[in-house]
Structures are given as C-alpha cells and as structure tokens.
Write a structure and sequence with these properties.
This protein has 15 helices and 14 strands. It is of the alpha/beta class and about 625 residues long. The strands form 3 sheets. It has a 6-stranded antiparallel β-sheet, covered by helices on one side. A 5-stranded parallel β-sheet has the order 8-12-13-3-14, with helices on one face. Strands 9-10-11 form a 3-stranded antiparallel β-sheet. It starts with a strand and ends with a strand.
Length: about 625
C-alpha cells in the first residue's frame, strides 16, 4: 500500500490542508510545533479510526487533543492510497455526532463496503497496536537508558513468544500473576471457622427461644384485659348512673330541706304534732260554754262589787250612828268586813272572767298560728294550703315517698361503694393484665431480637456458604492460573527456541546494515537479556549508548514488520524524529541502509535539516515537503 495524497478538513491545527506524497523516501520537514506529530496521528487515524475515551480519560486523550482548533467545519479528511494497482479514497469524519467511514474505489468508480476483512487485507493484518509498534515509529522513548532497555526487553519477549505485538506475553504473564495475587486476596481463610462457629450459635439460639417463657401469650392477656376493661366500663357506667340518680334524689331532698330519713321522720312527727295542736286549739276555741262562763263571772263580779258597796255604805252609816249613840262600837266594823269580802269575791270573779276571755282569744290565736304553719307546710309539699284531714293524709303519703327516696339513696350510695370496690378490683386486674402484657411484649421483643439475630446468623451462614464456594472457585482459578503460567513458560521457551532464532537472525542482519558493520549481530538469552555481538565478547544492551539502543530498537521493529508483511515491505514506513540521538555517521549509515533495503514507501518526519543535507551529500533520491 502506498500513500498518494492527504486532504485535512480539520484536524488539530490543520484546516483545509493538502499534502502530496511520492514513491520512495518522503522527508517531511517542519520546526517544532509545526504539526508533524499531528500529521502522523492523522495518517494512523485515517487507517484505524479515532475513538473518544470515557470519563476523565477523555479530557486528554488523542481525540480531544486533535479536535480542530478553529472549532468549525468537519473533524476529519480524506486520504488516497494505492493498493495492488487500485487507487482507493478513504474518507473519515471523526466527530462523535457525525462519525462516518467511506471507501471509494477510484479506479473502478464505485464505493467499497468498509468491511473489516477488506481493511485487514489492505493493512496486511496489522492491528493498530502492531502497526504502532512496527512500521509506525514515533519519537523513541530513549530519554533514559533504563526505560529504553525495559522497552527493548518487552518488545523482544513478545515477538519471540507470539510474533505479534498485540499479544504481549510479558504483560500476559504479569497480568496472570497479578490476577493470582488478586484471587489470593479474595480468599477468606477464616470462613470455615466462622461457618462452624455460626452453626453452633444458631443451635444455641434455637434451643433458647424454644423455652416456655418465650411462648406467646400476648393475645390471651390482651383478650382478658379487653374483657376486664369492658366490665370495668360497665361498672363505671352503673356507678355514674347511680350517682346521677343520687344527685337527683339528694336535690329533691335538699329542696324539701331533708338530709336523711331521721330528718324526714322528725319533720313528719313535728307536723303531726302541730296538726294536733291546731285541732285542739280550734276545737277549744269553738266551744260555747267558755264565753257564757266568762259573762257569768263578770256578772258575779259586778254583783259582788255592788254588794260590797252596799255593805260598806251601811257600815259607815252604822259607824257614824254608833259614834253618836255610844257603846255599840263593834257593829260598824262587821259591815266593813262584809263589804271587803264582797269586793274580794267580785275581784275574783272579775279575774276569772277576764282569764276566760283571754284564754278564748289565746286559743283562737294559737289555732290561727298553727293553721298558718300547716298551710305553709301543705303548700310547700302539696301545692295546696288548705288544712284538712285529706291534706294531712296527702302529706303523710308525700313523707312516705321521701322516706322511700331516702332509703333508696342509702341503698344507692351503698351500691356505689360496692361498685367502686368492684371497679377498684377490676382496675387492679386490668393493671395486672397490663403488666403481664408489658412483660409479654418485652419477652416478644427479646424474642424478635433473638429471631433477628438468628436470621442474621443464618444469612451469614448462607453468605459464608457462598464464600466457601467462592473460596473453592478461587482456588480452582488459582490452580488454572498456575497451569496457565506454567504453560506460557513452556510455550515461551519452546517458541523462543524456534521462532526466536529467525527473529534474532533477521534483526542481526538489519543491525549490521544500520550500524554499518559496527555490530554484526545481536542475541537474546533465556532471560530475555539483549546482547550486542562483537568479535571479542557479548555486550549487554544497557552498556551501549542511547544511539545504539535506538538502532537496536529500529532493527527489532523492522524485523518484526518484515515478519508481518513478508519480504515485499507492502506498507509505508513512518519515522517520526526517529534519529534524534544519531550522530551524522550513524544517521548516514541508517538512511543509506533504509533507502537501499526497505522496498516500500518511507515517510520521515524531522525537525532538523541535517537529514536533508545528509541525503543530498549521499545522493539519495527523496521528496522534500516543508510544513
């Protein structure tokens, strides 16, 4: 395959840039930052595509670095190549939103399906990895000799064992060893012991929770408490009903000014006594002989007073007569005595008459007063102030009602006390059920904790089962890795004995030409140590100069590329500042050897003008392109 020309729509710093290439050696010269590496990357991207990384890696990946600087237009371009006499145009758009690949056969004027098989055939089966490690030679990593030696050893190990840089045996062995360490870290050596311990703990917990105290009686206690609570509520309702009745009865008694049965009986007796006094006073005041007797007494008092006056007058006259007549001195005195006796009798009858009159008035007054009291009593209790036998009987009936009410209140109060006692007993029973429920809830909570712990232990057991199974699987993986490592070692040794001889011979032929005979051959021992062969001894690679290391590295790459392509050198060889560490003698020998031995197209990127001067001085045909 030969590159004919390039057209860059947009790639890094390039925008609408065209570049034509020719057969043989094409030297592309440009100062630093002129875009040589960008152009090199564009060619590789046109052949293999350009993918964008993911996550943080996408910030500094090749895709992000090569985004067109101008930020407008297409991200891509086209490249014309000639392969086996046919010209193809490869067009690519690298933009993630409009990513595309088109291949046009310009010779026949038709589009070609960009199948992998077609691309593999055009690229001689090279993958992007093998391409980058053989014919596409970037700026060599020889800043430090140690890093260069490590890269050489890795390169030789891979090519000696697999013949393909994409299959890195050294990294594969390192990967397997790392995987073995990872598997070893994943082993849980304490899993079996923990598994046995958990089984014992599970049996202990199951035995503990089967004890009688963990039997669930919560429902029974809750039902009992509900029944007791219902009965207590009934007792409380009965008590409240009785208290309301008692309050109503007490209000009735209080309105009648009664406090208990004794007050009612006392009030009834007093009323009956008052009624008896009323009857006696009324009957006595209504008797007719009392006024007659009082009048008679007053009449007799008047008669006695008259007689006393008469007797007193006669006695005075007789006393005057006796004084005048002489010795009958005692006759007048007897008259005075009769007058005094009459007057005394009159006064007695007067007092008796007045007493009878006053007694009659007192009886009437007493009858009126007791009647008024009875009227108030009957009016208050019967609503009628009439005083009669019927009213008295109605009053007595009403008192009987009050007595029954009072006895009922006493009985109700006793019932309230009884209900309060029964309610207190039920409350104690309810509290006892509550305590039992609390104990049951605590026991059930403890049981739930033990069951949770049991479940956790069982889950751990199941996890440990998986861990034990994983341990078995990991041990199988470790055994498989050990077998793979052993197999790789055996195959590496076997292939090194056969394929390694051919690779070393090809690389030795090339190193002799590149170094202009300074080193005639090279060899690799069983430990993958590289030695340069001289006439007197084997020189370890780490004892040669950086320039010689670059030459060895170039020889190994070209040897590997020839093994991939065959002797025809079908693909272009791309060198990007590959001779930085070469002195002019080494450079002249290398360029002369490359132009004489590499049969394909060569693209050499450089930032130095000495390559052009050496080519001109050596008379080597080349095509110079300035960026």
């Amino acid at each position: 395959m030969k590159l004919l020309d390039l057209h860059i729509d947009g790639f890094g710093k390039f925008h609408h840039r065209d570049l034509s290439l020719e057969d043989g050696l094409n030297m592309i010269y440009g100062r630093n930052e002129a875009g040589k590496s960008t152009l090199h990357t564009f060619i590789r991207s046109m052949l293999f595509g350009l993918e964008r990384g993911r996550g943080r890696a996408s910030r500094n990946d090749c895709y992000s670095r090569c985004i067109p600087w101008e930020g407008q237009g297409a991200y891509g371009g086209r490249m014309r190549v000639e392969h086996e006499g046919t010209v193809y145009r490869i067009e690519r758009n690298f933009s993630r939103e409009q990513k595309s690949l088109t291949i046009v056969d310009e010779t026949l004027g038709r589009e070609v399906v960009p199948a992998k098989a077609f691309l593999d055939e055009m690229l001689c089966g090279l993958t992007e990895t093998s391409y980058s490690n053989t014919i596409s030679i970037g700026q060599l990593k020889s800043a430090t000799d140690g890093g260069m030696v490590s890269e050489l050893r890795n390169f030789i190990a891979n090519m000696n064992t697999s013949g393909n840089m994409a299959l890195n045996i050294t990294r594969a062995s390192s990967y397997l060893k790392n995987r073995r360490k990872e598997f070893e870290r994943r082993l849980v050596p304490e899993a079996a012991r923990s598994y046995t311990s958990l089984l014992g703990e599970i049996r202990a917990i199951e035995k503990e929770i089967s004890a009688p105290e963990y039997e669930n009686q919560l429902k029974a206690y809750q039902d009992t408490r509900t029944q007791v609570h219902t009965r207590l509520a009934e007792k409380q309702r009965d008590r409240e009903s009785l208290l309301q009745k008692i309050a109503t009865g007490r209000q009735a008694l209080d309105s009648a000014q009664f406090s208990d049965e004794a007050s009612i009986l006392r009030y009834q007796d007093e009323t009956l006594a008052t009624y008896g006094e009323y009857q006696d006073a009324r009957m006595s005041s209504e008797r007719k002989f009392r006024p007659v007797l009082a009048g008679l007494c007053l009449l007799l008092a008047l008669v006695c007073g008259g007689l006393g006056g008469i007797f007193f007058a006669r006695s005075q006259m007789m006393l005057l007569t006796e004084l005048l007549n002489g010795p009958e001195i005692f006759s007048g005195s007897s008259g005075v005595a009769l007058a005094a006796g009459s007057w005394a009798g009159g006064i007695l009858f007067l007092v008796l008459g007045i007493s009878l009159i006053l007694k009659g008035k007192g009886l009437k007054k007493e009858a009126a007063m007791t009647g008024k009291v009875l009227q108030e009593i009957f009016s208050r209790h019967l609503g009628d102030s009439a005083v009669s036998e019927e009213a008295l009987r109605a009053f007595q009936a009403r008192m009987e009602e009050y007595l029954r009410l009072s006895r009922m209140l006493v009985e109700s109060e006793a019932a309230v006390v009884r209900l309060e006692g029964e309610a207190a007993a039920l409350k104690e029973q309810e509290d006892a059920c509550g305590d039992a429920i609390s104990r049951q809830q605590r026991m059930q909570w403890e049981l739930e904790k033990k069951l949770d712990h049991l479940t956790h232990c069982k889950d751990q057991v199941e996890s440990l089962k998986r861990v034990l199974a994983e341990n078995d699987r990991v041990r199988e993986e470790i055994a498989a890795i050990d077998l793979a490592l052993e197999t790789i070692t055996e195959l590496s040794s076997s292939i090194r004995d056969s394929f390694g001889l051919y690779l070393n011979k090809t690389a030795s032929d090339m190193i002799a030409g590149i170094t202009d005979g300074v080193y005639s051959s090279m060899s690799v021992d069983e430990n993958l140590n590289v030695f340069m062969n001289t006439r007197t001894r084997l020189v370890p690679i780490d004892q040669v100069s950086s320039g010689t290391m670059d030459q060895v590295y170039l020889a190994l790459r070209l040897a590997a590329a020839r093994l991939f392509q065959g002797d025809e050198d079908k693909l272009p060889l791309i060198l990007d500042d590959s001779f930085v560490l070469y002195d002019e003698d080494r450079l002249r020998s290398a360029l002369r050897w490359l132009c004489g031995n590499y049969k394909g197209q060569i693209l050499m990127f450089t930032c130095h003008q000495r390559e052009a001067r050496v080519l001109e001085d050596s008379g080597i045909q080349h095509h110079l392109i300035r960026l």
